[in-house]
Amino acid sequence: MLNDSAMPSKVKRESLTQEALRRLRNTKRETPWERKAEILSEFSHKLMASGYNERFRSDVIKSAVGGYNKQCSRA
Question: What DSSP line would sit under 1-45, residue for residue?
Answer without folding.
Answer: --TTSSS-HHHHHHHHHHHHHHHHHTS-TTS-HHHHHHHHHHHHH
